[in-house]
Every structure is written in structure tokens, then in C-alpha cells.
Amino acid sequence: DVKVTQSSRYLVKRTGEKVFLECVQDMDHENMFWYRQDPGLGLRLIYFSYDVKMKEKGDIPEGYSVSREKKERFSLILESASTNQTSMYLCASTAYGGADTQYFGPGTRLTVL
Amino acid sequence: AQSVTQLDSQVPVFEEAPVELRCNYSSSVSVYLFWYVQYPNQGLQLLLKYLSGSTLVKGINGFEAEFNKSQTSFHLRKPSVHISDTAEYFCAVSEGAGGTSYGKLTFGQGTILTVHP
């Protein structure tokens, strides 16, 4: 069974802290994605990666960075957390291109105080 | 660039009634279309997808969707809902054949389906 795991289900951080969210997939997928989910806005793409060490900005990259040192692992970094980054963060992976199903992790609910 | 609009933010319905969740999209290129479901406190999982061929697509849990190219719509339907169908439903698009988007999805705003006994 395919699996995408995220390091934490719930996280509480203070403004200005550096925050790491980690995602691991066990399907040998090429592409990995980070989305944030907010009520009434659906899911919005932050960053994605199509290969190890390769990344591209999504629709809302400001305030975030990413790292993909190994194929199975994709990290989202908040360099200096702010209250407007309080949200649900979802990681996903897919094998190749647009026709393939994206598989999602359970999400990390981040609260920044 | 693509955009997706889900026309209803909330849909309340009684158990065993039919339901339709509406989705319209806009794109300058051909697209693939998806419906995902998110049950409470879970990630998203695929309900169904349209890639090509027959415009009526059947998915899991008795759901189906119809692709209408002229109306740029991809509405989701179920003839008889259950309490367990209570969830949030997302319509999404990705670039179609020949695209170089690596499978990026553009999502709609989501529709919360609540099934009442």
C-alpha cells in the first residue's frame, strides 16, 4: 500500500522560530509537492520538486523554502514563522506527470503564536 | 494557467438522497480532471479522474463525474448518499498530454458535503 508520511500531525511554534516540516514517501515517486490548506481557499501549491535537489516555486512560495536531498524525502522550511503561516500543510507525491494520481500525507496542522 | 471554481461551498443533504457537486474550470491548454475527497482529520484521497475517452467517469464509493468540454465542467454525482460520505470534496486540474507541469494540481475551493440522517 502506498504511503506518504509527515513528521508531525500537530505543531505549535512561536513567531520568529525556524520550522521544519518533513515528508517521506515510500513509492519511489519522482515528484513531490507541498500545499497549504485554508478554509474557503482550497489547497494552494507552495513548492514542488521533480528530482533530487531540483525544486520550483508554486503559487505562494513567499516565506518558505524547501529541501530535497534524497528522493524519498521532501522538507518544507519556514525560515522565520509568522502568525499568517498558521495553516494545515499537506505533502503529496506522484510518479511522473499530470495523468498520475497524487498521494497525500495526513497533514500537519501548524499553529504559530 | 488554470483555475477551478467549485460553485457550492457547503451542500447539506439527507441520507439516501442524490447529490451533485459542481465544478467548472478554465484553461488555455488541455487538462486532466480530478476529484479528491478529504474525510475529517485525514489527507486527500482520489475519488476519480478523467484523462481521455468516455466523458462519464466512475470512481470509488459509487461516485461518478461527467466531463463537459463545451461547458468546461466536471460535476460529481452520487445517486444515493450515506452518512459516511460526509467529507470535503475537491475538484482539481493538471496540464494534459504533452504538458511539462510535473503533475502540479490546481484545486478548487472545496465543497463540504454534510449528510443528515
The whole-angstrom Rg of chain B is 14 Å
Helix content of chain B: under 10%
Tally the helices of chain A.
Answer: 0
- Would you identify the regions of chain A where 5 or more consecutive residues have pLDDT less than 50? none
Mean pLDDT of chain A: 94
As a percent range, the share of helical residues of chain A equals under 10%
Uncertain parts of chain B: none
Helical/strand content category of chain A: mainly beta
Work out the oligomeric state of the chains in this entry: heterodimer
Main sheet summary of chain A = 7 strands, mixed
Characteristic key phrases:
heterodimer; A: 113 residues; mainly beta; four-stranded antiparallel sheet; 11 strands; 57% strand; B: 117 residues; six-stranded mixed sheet; 0% helix
List the helices and strands and how they pair.
The complex is a heterodimer of chains A (113) and B (117).
Chain A: E1 4-6, E2 10-13, E3 19-25, E4 31-38, E5 42-51, E6 54-57, E7 64-70, E8 73-78, E9 87-94, E10 103-104, E11 108-112
Chain B: E1 2-6, E2 10-14, E3 19-21, E4 23-27, E5 31-38, E6 44-50, E7 56-58, E8 64-68, E9 73-78, E10 87-95, E11 106-107, E12 111-116
Parallel strand pairs in B: 2-12
Antiparallel strand pairs in B: 1-4, 3-9, 5-6, 5-10, 7-8, 8-9, 10-11, 10-12
